[in-house]
Amino acid sequence: MDVRRREFLALAGLAASAVAVGGCGAAGGAGAAPDGSLRAAFGQPVTDLDPYNAGTAVDEASLIVKRLVFDTLVRYEGEKLVPGLATSWRRTNDTTWVFELRPGVRFHDGSPLTARDVVACVERTKAVKSAQSALWAAVKSARADGDHRVVFVTDGPQGTLPVNLTLLFIVPARLVADPAQKRRPVGSGPFRVTGFTPSTSVELARFDGYWGGRAGLPGISMPFIAETSSAITALRNGDVDLLWPVPSDQLGEVKGQRGVKVETVPSWTYYLAWFNCGRKPFTDPRVRRAMVQALDMEEIVGKLFGAGAERMRAPIPSTVFGYAEQPPYPHDPDAARRALRDAGLGGGFETTMMWFDATGPLARELAQSMISAWDGIGVKVAPQSIEKAQWLQRLNTLDWDMELQTNTVTTGDAAFTLGRLYTSKADRMGYKNPGLDKVLAEAGQSADPKHREELYAQACKTIWDDAVGVFPATLTTAYGLRSALTGFTAAANNQPDLSTVRRTP
Questions:
Q1: Neighbour tally for 116: CB within 10 Å
Q2: Rg value, the chain, Cα
Q3: Gap between the Cα atoms of 46 and 34, Å rounded
Q4: Which interval of the chain is the signal sequence (predicted)?
Q5: What is the pLDDT of residue 132?
Q6: Do 288 and 336 contact (CB within 8 A), yes or no?
Q7: What is the helix (H) or strand (E) element at residue 15, kind and residue range?
Q8: Is 346 exposed, middle or buried (0-12, 13-18, 19+ CB in 10 A)?
Q9: Under a CB-based contact definition with an 8 Å cutoff, are residues 196 and 16 in contact?
Q10: Alpha helices, DSSP H only, in 376-486?
Q11: Which of 269, 317, 312, 291 is nearest to 401 (CA)?
């Protein structure tokens, strides 16, 4: 991204922030969040609100808003699964789950929520090929048994269904395929959408008919401020109430500031750089391992992030269920060059790596550090810093050589990442391994936590040894917030529940 473009985005972000602040009353115009709303700025833009959009099915920024607008049958409270729209659930046999729904729930348009809406949402989720598809492949059917009971039938044992249901957002059956859901969706969550400009701002108003009780503040305004320095200035000046994540190299600009406090949490968010294993030369595991050996990740992560990140020892963060530590690849450029010669690439090769800057803190710097190290073994990597929408489109169509991103294990369970991304059927990075498929399938079927841990340990080892990608660091998420805010809890998945937040006078 060139300087002019970055400056433009920074100005756009500040303009959005001004709208959020000035537009909290009638003077703000139609669509503005109501007066007294929480002003919250996340580090990535929201591009779409449709819960079944293929490109944003697991997009972190979109999920933050979706959890405020829509409900799920099951939800997380800390690390514990608790009732949402479902008051209870039980497994009646190996392939059947029964969920009892909460009576009296209404959507934002006043219509009642029933089991038929849930069934329609399951069918829509299964019909749309997305990054969530692997989670629902085992669901054979869902049917309504009256207004308040849903029966799921799977094609084999599936112990992870309740976890996966934390990602099934419920809308009225008649709207599951309505294009209007992209901009002004109807859900049953604690807030309703009053205004949305893609990649610029989201405006929400409290839904007073919410079954879980009224949210703490009358609304939420979420501007996207492209430049972190501008966002920090807005926080310090009181133009925004909440900002996250604050990069570790800029925490000093937030800590100790009058009227501002910082809360941190070891997150489920981490950096990864995948190789397109279906595209030469990355079809050869020797080449992929050489690329990993060329990197001194201890030095790169230490210099860039300091205490703001932890060097990864597996393809998922250490705080996630299913983590199993692996031996680190030694930094050995000579061995990397020998491996390339053995693969017939003694003269090196040329390739590309794409990312979007807002994916996470210091993304550009991390990319440049890796590209410089690869140059040292004769691999010329052309950098491709692109817009998020273009990145998503190319990612989902495997139109890339290498790609860098942050990823969040939204559910805190390895099934969400390992079981969703690394199967042959998912084909997220061109990697296909029937043996791994079998292990992941068994892990998804089992309801025994100990057995699942053993299986995911095998999966961690396979993915690590095959060098499917580079896994640099797990991030510590820092939230900067105005001191007047209460009821806020830092979330490991970067998706805090903002409905509980209040502001003291």
A1: 15
A2: 23
A3: 20
A4: 1-26
A5: 87
A6: no
A7: helix 3-22
A8: exposed
A9: no
A10: 388-396, 414-421, 434-445, 449-465
A11: 291
Average pLDDT, integer, range 310-337: 97
Take residue 407 and report the two structure tokens written for it: 């990823």
State the pLDDT at residue 25.
34
Tokens of 335: 């061995």
Q: Which helix (H) or strand (E) holds 81?
A: strand 80-83
Q: Residue 142, CB half-sphere, CA atoms under 13 Å: how many?
A: 23
pLDDT at 444: 87
What domains can be seen in the chain, in order of their start residue?
3-49+189-258 (3.40.190.10), 74-179 (3.90.76.10), 266-475 (3.10.105.10)
Least confident interval from 18-27, 203-212, 380-389, 464-473? 18-27
Q: How far apart are CA 207 and CA 85, in angstroms?
A: 16
Minimum mean pLDDT among 109-113, 228-232, 338-342, 443-447: which range? Answer: 443-447
Q: What are 232's two structure tokens?
A: 């920090």
Q: Output phi, psi for 311, to 5 deg.
A: -60, 130
The structure tokens 């859900």 sit at 187
Record the tokens describing residue 155, joined without a space.
């094609």
* Helix count and strand count (H, E) for the chain: 14, 20
Using one digit for the tens of pLDDT, what is the confidence trace for 451-474?
Answer: 999 999 999 999 999 999 999 999
Band of residue 289 on the pLDDT scale cut at 50, 70, 90? very high
Q: Is 339 left (phi over 0), alpha (psi -120 to 50) or beta?
A: alpha
Chain centroid offset of residue 480 CA: 20
Q: How far apart are CA 328 and CA 313, in angstroms?
A: 6
327's tokens: 């031996």
The CB density around residue 430, as the number of other CB atoms within 10 Å, is: 16
What is the residue whose two structure tokens read 């059927």?
Answer: 425
> Cα angle vertex 446, ends 443, 449, to 5°?
85
% of the chain beyond a pLDDT of 70: 94
Q: For the whole model, what pTM was predicted?
A: 0.81
